[in-house]
Design a protein that fits this description.
With 568 residues, this protein is an alpha+beta fold. It folds into 3 domains: 22-100, Sandwich (Immunoglobulin-like); 118-351 and 385-397, no CATH class; 423-564, no CATH class. 25% of the residues lie in helices and 33% in strands. It is built from 11 helices and 23 strands.
Amino acid sequence: MILDKGKTFFCTLLLALASSAGLRAQSNFAATIIDESNREALPYVVVSDLRTKYTTYSDALGMVSIPNVQAGDSIMFFSIGYQKKYIVFQPQTRYSEIAMTPVAYDLKELVIRANDTFLYDLIEKAQRNAPKETTAAKTYFQLETKVNEQQVELVECYYNGTFEGNDVDKLDLKNGRIALLPFDERMYTSTEGSKSIYLHKLFSKNSYFPDSPLELRGKKLKQRYRLEYAGEYLNEAKEKVCVIDFFPKKNQDQSFEGKIWMLEKTGALVRVEFRAMNTKTFPFAPIGAADSLYDVNLFITKNFDQDQGKTRLRSIDFSYHLEYLTNLGDRKQLETSALLVPYDYQHLFTLPQFSFSTGTYEDYVKIQAVPYNEIFWNNNQEFVIEATRQRVASFIENPAVLTNQTGFRTELYRSKDLLERGYVFWNDTTDIRFKTISIDTAKYARYQLLPPVERYHIEVQLYMDVNIINGQLETLTATIYDPFQSYYYFPITEEANAFINLYFDLVEMHRRRLETLIAISKTETELLQYHSEVKRELSIASTKFFREVDRGTNPSQMENWRKKIILQ
């Protein structure tokens, strides 16, 4: 009997241990976040696992996912205008929906008369006390476009973002990728989606966007906008948050309406929502001159945090819906949604060693300027919208989708203005040729007046991207010809083409020397020092090369340099 009891106890202990191990097992949390009052999906809600500090956002449809969640983990849901919500994760529970409760606004203590300036004074307080500090953060950007409900575009980027007060000042690209699905033998692209976001400034007028009350003061503010008090509430820091609805009195098709959340005491913004229905003012245009845009609806939401009394940007979501009329008379319903999140104000990326040219189609040009970093994307440990991860992967892997991994190499959809990569990467078959410039053109005649040395410039760069993946240094290098900074105002001859290709080989030789130094590098600092060293050596060699070969017109020096440039 004692033995049997022992056996019984032993079996029970095993079962308990097995059960405990099961509780410690990791699972994925997934749900759709909705508004409790109207059951509508809530996009871009901040969701955090408080144990692991893992933070993500719900997507545009309110869907959220968190990997590697353990039983007992506390998950927090946060969105301005809603009560914070917490749940304790249990693997056996099916979380189909998470309902968030709108904040209850208090209106009892305030009576606003028709001639009361209280709300206008609040707006002007926000303007006067607008933050001026410059900050920087790792920043994530994702943009998706649908045509007739079919996804046709994905742009995903990581940047070092620079922020001045409430606004985005600039975005320096770390890595980016593009995926496009042809639709009815057309491409629908948002070639400068990130630029559209940072062009919008809260407190200054911008001709690309409708007006808002935050841009106006005094008499003009009162003439142009009607303000209504939606209510107030206390946030977690016991600060009073005032909520103001704003409506344009005239020029509705050129003005935003929306809602502002702000701290009554300081005027610091907490959240601003902008809506413009059927607006005539927007920051994009059809690439095809014969195409047209109709019924454009713009939506912008900006969220802010208070960090030690200073305001900093938490996120921007930017979307638009419109009707696209092609030159053939076809009408398409186009929807684009984008999210920009500064997610790490303590650390910045080590940016690629490369000087990007700026110009038209900036996002697309910059992403295509550099080689696709497969190691970075396959081992990405940075911020991501977890709910979209699988959808993004499936879209990119679709055989019909064109991506910057291949440089959009396809005959049917190769466009010189859009998808054709202007930058050229060195390989064993690289052959760069200048376009002939007619001697009859004004440009050619103008450059003939310059000294020969000022009539050409060849820009070839040593690209290097450094990442720490799983504790290991990973580098990607390339020799890249930059056509945006290169020019050649001489007759195009075979000697000229041989000259530029030989110079390309010279740069490649230095890149291979850099690779040998990378192999012995142990730190990121060493890698950057070696790159700087090789770049300096290349500059010295380039000066000598250009002087001696004289644009390829000196055959003996060309031959001497061919012997020096050894590619193994």
